[in-house]
Amino acid sequence: MNLAYHTAYITGGTKGIGYGVAEAILQSGGNAIITSRSAAAAEAAADKLNAGGHSGKALGVEADVRDAASQRRAIAAGVEAFGGVDIVIANAGVGHFAAIQDLSAEDWQETIDINLTGVFHTVQASLPELIRNEGYLITISSLAGTNFFAKGSAYNASKFGLVGFTQAVMLDVRDHGVKVSTIMPGSVATHFNGHTPSAEDDWKIQPEDIGQLVVDLLRMPARTLPSKVEVRPSKTK
């Protein structure tokens, strides 16, 4: 699909899934606004993407999903740079894993603030642009949004909540011409939770695979909406 004249806003876009999605968007001819809490990281990732020779362009913006005003400023920066935003990928996330008796209130709060409330801020900041352009919102949840596990109380709560939030938003905005999907990956080879990807992760889903999935969703006919997509490695380790 040629995404020329389309612009995607991607939270947490400097590495992992967010970067893989941004690269797929650029390879398909679109533009990408990638955010990070670090201005230097956002700009460095955008420079790397722009060095790939794609027709689309990347813009790195400092923004924190926990700050609603920060999200509004980042969307405004994208509109100023590219004339509009019609694709939003709410990807920024964090994981803290501990048995409930060991889970700190601080780790609980950060997980909910980034994984759930942060998506709320992103959606509210981008919704005027999505409605104006009849765009597409995609949230990146997890199989942990439907499968609970030990030491996952904070993460499960945030991702179960994100799945429900996304599906409710889909119903709120579908008659405004906005499509909404949530992608629920299993094991992905990323830097999530302090992991360093290596050759031993070749059995896992790769970030570029999620990027391809996003582009495939954008290719769907306007009349058809895959509202919830579970994706897992085709084989176990």
From TrEMBL:
Highest rank taxon of the organism: Bacteria
Q: Which InterPro entries match?
A: KR_dom, NAD(P)-bd_dom_sf, Sc_DH/Rdtase_CS, SDR, SDR_fam
Instruction: Kindly list the biological process annotations in GO that this record carries.
Output: monocarboxylic acid metabolic process
Q: Which residues form the Ketoreductase domain?
A: 6-192
One Pfam match: adh_short
Name the family the entry cites.
Answer: Belongs to the short-chain dehydrogenases/reductases (SDR) family.
**What is the protein named?**
SDR family oxidoreductase
